[in-house]
Amino acid sequence: MPTKIEMYAQMADHVATQLTGSWQEWAGFLTTAARLYKYPFHEQMMIYAQRPDATACAEYDLWNDKMGRYVRRGSKGIALVDDSGDRPRLRYVFDISDTGTREHSRTPWLWRLEEQHMDSVTAMLERTYEVSSEDLAQQLADVAAKLADEYWNEHQQDFFYIIDGSFLEEYDELNIEVQFKAAATVSITYALMSRCGLEPEQYFSHEDFMAIFDFNTPATIGALGTAVSQINQQVLRQIGVTIRNYEREQLAERSDQHE
Asked: 3-state DSSP: the chain helix, strand, coil percent, rounded to 5?
C-alpha cells in the first residue's frame, strides 16, 4: 500500500499527463496558475488538482501568525510534495476561503488591473522588454514570445534529454524548438491575460494550443510548465509592483491635496 507521499507523487504524475490531454484542461490550469504565480509549477499543479478555484494559499502558521486569520475547523489542507530536503515530505497550504478573520486580521493584497493602471503597465512593459503596442493583449503576447525565445536559448540542451516516450521524440531539433516556443508562447500569453482580467478565452481556440499535445509525458510537461511558470512569475510580479506603486502615488497625491 503506497504511503501518503507516494500517493500524492502518483497524483502529480497523473495530473501532469492529464493537463495537456485537452486544451480546455490546460487553459483551466493556466487560469489557476496565474492566480498563484508565486508558486513553482509542480505546486501550482497540485493546487489545481485539489482546489482549482484557489485564489491565495499559505501555510497554517502564516495565516495564523502573520495575517492574524484563523483556519476554519474542518478545512482540508492542500497537500504539496516538498522534495527540497533529504527525503520528500508533505506540507499543507490553505486557501484564503478556508480562513476567517479576527479583530486585527489582515487580508493579502491581490492586485487587479484597472483602466487607470493601463498606461503605467504598458509603459513598464515597453521599458523592460522593448515591446510596444497600443493593445495590452498584443503587448503581452509579444512579451511572451520574446521571453519564450530567450528561455529556449538558455535551456534548449536540457530538453533534448527528456523527450523519450513523448511525441516530441519524432521531431528533429529545429521542430522541437518550434513546438516548444509555440506551446510556451500561447501558454504564457493565456496566463498573463487571465491574471490581467482580459478574458483570454475570447482570443484563443483549439488550434492555438495544438503544440501542447506533443508534451505528453511527466518530464516534458514538467519542463514546459516550469518555463511557463517562471516567466509568468517574472512578468506578473512586475505588473503587481507597477500597480502597487501607482496606488501609492495616488494615495500620496490625495493626502497632499487634503492637507
From this structure: 65, 10, 25
As a whole number of angstroms, the distance between CA 34 and CA 31 comes to: 5
Rounded CA-CA distance 216/54 in Å is 25
Please say whether the beta carbons of 239 and 121 come within 8 A. yes
pLDDT tens for 205-220 read 999 999 999 999 999 9
Q: Which residues of 120-143 are buried (b: 16+ CB within 10 A; e: fewer)?
A: ebbebbeeebebeeeebbebbbbb
**Rounded to the nearest 10 degrees, how much is the dihedral formed by the CA atoms of 73, 88, 168, 161?**
160
Tell me what pLDDT residue 258 has.
Answer: 61
Query: Would you say 71 and 86 are in contact if contact means Cβ atoms under 8 Å apart?
Result: no
Distance CA(217)–CA(169), nearest Å, equals: 11
Q: How far apart are CA 103 and CA 175, in angstroms?
A: 58
Measured between alpha carbons, how far is 249 from 221 in angstroms, rounded to an integer?
A: 41
Determine if the pTM surpasses 0.85: yes
Please list, in sequence order, all residues whose beta carbon lies within 8 angstroms of the beta carbon of residue 155, skipping any fewer than 6 positions away.
227
Q: In this predicted model, what pLDDT tens digit does every residue of 174-216 receive, in sequence order?
A: 999 999 999 999 999 999 999 999 999 999 999 999 999 999 9
| CA separation, residue 153 to residues 78, 150, 183 (Å) | 35, 5, 15
The three cell numbers locating residue 34:
496565474
